[in-house]
Amino acid sequence: MSHPLRSARLVVAVVLGAAVGAITAVWIAHISVPTDFEFWWRGARVWGAGGNPYLYARDTPGWPLPDPLFYPLPALILTWPVSALPVSVAAGIFMGVSTAALAWALTRDGFWRLLILAHPGMVMAMRYGQWSPLLMAGALIPSAAFVLIAKPTLGLACFTYRPTWRGAAVAAVFGLASLAMWPSWPMWWLRNLHQAVGHPPPIATLLGVVMVLALLRWRRSEARFLFVMACVPQLLWFSDQLPLTLVARNSREAVWLSICAAIAFLLWIVRFGAIGGAAAVIGAEPYVIVGCYFPALIMVLMRPNVAGPGAGSRPLRTEG
User: Fold this and answer.
1) Cα 158 to chain center, whole Å?
2) Is residue 75 domain-resident?
3) Residues 233, 236, 242, 248: is their CA dihedral positive or negative?
4) Which residue, 120, 125, 119, 74, is CA-closest to 97?
């Protein structure tokens, strides 16, 4: 890769990261309800002070949140460096770094892939400070695959997009390091995880069961990725579905996936009047399945069941 192109990629990544980070920080500073980011930010603060964040229950002192901590220790370790900052500033840095890393990975094969950042899942990730952009970067950069275990369900699906031995190794090393820091954390984490509700695998839903059709193209890596995505528990709220944009092989497909998701997103907002609240969260399920999963499935089924990108398209390569 030429030096000017690498420099251009770096500039674009930094500019996008800075812009997204600033918008996220301002956005979260003006949200009155807790964000997703606040859960592992507070967890990192408690852990950093020597406490057990998995013992905190709803609305207990020092934990003004509606749920206990559902994230593993690696998520807290990754957040700890910014945990001393105000939550809005910390979330801005988190999303800025995540976006910069993703932009760097996406532009390896051309700048057109940045079109997937127009997906409403990116908007939701910014509004609530979520993991999906960083997990996508971990899927595309084997040396950064350790971030995938910060959210193991979605991380596993992202790993199947382009699995590499290097990615598996760095993730395993990070996981072992977290056990060395606190050997009993998996026990506490799993205890809390049993209390999590509202995160069904899409394939277990009435509309999502058709995702089993992705296996008709089982020889293709993106078909296997799509099937695994449909099988892991996730919040059907657009942000966790941002990685589905990796199915796109050209600018036309990237725009199509973003448009379909945007239409579903707008219809959902019109139906519920807001993107927050229990009713809106629960009601998002059919909009997410139809707007995010169905277009990706159709795209995969239109390709031949052969290994590789097929005629007229190319896979998104991994860094390394």
Assistant:
1) 8
2) yes
3) positive
4) 125
List Cβ neighbours of 307 (8 Å cut-off, separation of 6 or more): 219, 220, 221
Q: Give me the residue label for tokens 């990615």.
A: 167
How many structural domains does the chain have?
1
H helix runs in the chain, sequence order:
3-29, 36-48, 73-79, 87-106, 120-128, 132-140, 152-159, 165-181, 185-193, 221-231, 251-272, 278-283, 285-288, 294-301
Using alpha carbons, list the distances in angstroms from residue 3 to 9, 14, 100. 10, 16, 18
Q: Is 310 within the bounds of a domain?
A: no
Mind listing the pLDDT tens digit for each residue in 205-228?
A: 999 999 999 999 999 999 999 999
pTM above 0.90, yes or no: yes
In this prediction, residue 313 carries a pLDDT of 43
Any bridge partners for residue 63, and if so which?
60
**Residue 133 within a domain:** yes
Q: What is the pLDDT of residues 162-173, one digit of tens each?
A: 999 999 999 999
| Secondary structure of 33-78 as H, E, C letters | CCCHHHHHHHHHHHHHCCCCHHHCCCCECCECCCCCCCCCHHHHHH
Tokens for 166? 């290097």
**Cβ-Cβ contacts under 8 Å for 282 (sequence gap 6 or more):** 198
In sequence order, which residues have a C-beta less than 8 Å from that of residue 102 and are 6 or more positions away?
117, 133, 134, 136, 137, 140
Nearest to 106 by CA among 84, 122, 83, 129: 122
**Residue partners of 3: CB distance under 8 A and separation at least 6:** none
Name which of 196, 183, 186, 199 is nearest 288 in CA terms.
199
Enclosing domain of residue 25? 3-301
**In a domain? residue 307:** no
Cα–Cα separations (whole angstroms), residue 208 to 183, 211, 241, 292: 37, 6, 13, 11
CA neighbor of 111 nearest in space, from 211, 36, 11? 11
Helices 294-301 and 251-272: crossing angle in degrees, nearest 10, is: 150
The one-letter amino acid at 103: A
